[in-house]
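haha ok so turns out i had the wrong file open the whole time. this is the CORRECT one, sorry everyone. sequence first:
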Amino acid sequence: MPEDYLDKELASDEIWWPPRTDQKVRGRLAYKDTINLSLFSAVDTTDEPVIFGNSNKFGRCTIFEAYSKENDNHSLPAPSSRFQATYAILGVHCESREEPIFNNISFHFPELCYFLEHDAFSTERHPDGKSTTTYTPQQSFRTSILDDSCTVYIGSGMSELGGGMESLTLIHRPSISFYFKSPESFNGILSLSDKVIRLFTLLLGKRTYLTEFNYACPDPMMSEQILQRRSRPPKPEWCFPIALLNRIKAYWPNLLEKWLGNEDIHTTALLLHHGMSDEGFLEDRFLSLAQALETYCRLNQPDNQYMDEDSYQKIQQKLLNSLPEATPRSFRQSFTHKLKFANQFGLKKRIKLELDGLDDKTVRLFCLDKSKFADKVVATRNWLVHQGEREPSQTFSNHELFPAAMSLQTLMLMLIYKWLGCPEHEVRQWLMDSDQLNKFNLVHHELRKGKIVSPIA
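then structure:
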C-alpha cells in the first residue's frame, strides 16, 4: 500500500460495488457522509454491518458501521437505499472464495500511548463539523513474517469520540499496522495477529484486542469469523514501566523479529499470564508458573546435556541390549521412551542454571537459598501433579504456596524481560517498586533498607 494513502482523507467521488457487476454509483464516501448505492455486498453481524466496496480514487475498501437512514432505523442497508457510513478502512478484497487476500491489519492498544509518547486521550475539535481520518506513522521498519516481506508501522489513527452540531471531538487511537508486500493466507494472518497481541500484552501489561482488521471477503461466514475477533475486552494484568518501554524503542525491530521467530516463548508467556491471573485455584496458578518456568528453561537452554549425543547413544544401546528377552513389550517401550530424555538436564538443574545467571541482588528478590528454592519448586510441582506421599521438608507447605507462587512470578517476569533484551538492573528496580508485588509482602520498602523478604528462609 503506497504511503501517501496513510494521510489522505478517506473519501471518494465515485464508488462501485462488486462482486457480480460493474454497475457504478455516483456519490461521496466520507466521514459521517450519507450516500446512495444501487448495488453492494453487505454482511450483518452481531456487532455491526460491514460493506465491501471499491473506490476509483483509493482502491478497494471496507466500510464498517453502515446503517440505513430510512426512518432513523439502524439496520443493514438494502440495495438502492440511502445509508450512513461511520468510517471507512482501506483494504484489499479477495478475488476468489477459496483464498481470501489481505494486505493490511491494524491493532488498537490502549496503553500504546506510552510507547508513542503522546496522550491517548488528546482531542482535536473541528468547528465546521468536518473531519478527516488520518494515520501518522511514528516509526517504521521492514521485517520478515510468514516467509514474506512486510512493512510495519507504529503510530496512531484518529476516530470519533463525540460531539454536537457545532463541533466534533476526535480521539487518538494508538495502533500498529502491518502492510504486506504480497497477499497472505487467511490462517497465516490470524496466526500473526495472535502473536502480535501476545507480545504487546506482555510488554504493555494488559490484554489488548484487535479493533481494525482491514480485510475484504465476499464469504459472509468467513467475514463473521474475522469480526468476532474484533471485540476482545482488555483485562489488566500488570503495568510495564515506561522507562523500559523507552529502552525497547531503540531496538524494536530486533525485538519483534525475535518474538515472531520463536514459538516456544509464546507458550511460556501464556502460561505466565494464567499463573498471574486471579482466576483458578492457587495450586493451578503455581503449576502454570512452574510450567512456564520449565518451557522457558528449555527455550533458553536447548543444548544442555550431560554428555555429547554420540557418547550417550552408545550407553543407551547397551542398556537396551541388557534387557532380558522375556521383558514385556510395554515395559521395553516405556524404558526406551524414558532413556530418550535421560541425557537432558532435569528441571531442577535448569532452574539452578538460570538462577546462577542472575545477579545476587536479583535472586534476593524471591529467595535466599537458590538450591533450596529450585528443589522445593520441582518437588512441589511433582507432588501436585502426581500426588502420593508428601514430604513436608521437600515441598512448600500450604501457607508457603502463595508466596512461593509470587516468587515464581517474579522470577519469570525477570527472565522473560531479560530474554527480550531489557537490562536486568532496570527490571529489578521496577520489581522492587512494583505495587503489585508490594501488596503481597514479597517485595516492599523494607527491601530498600537492606532487609530481605522471602518465602524461603
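Residues 398-420 form the longest helix (23 residues).
again sry for the mixup
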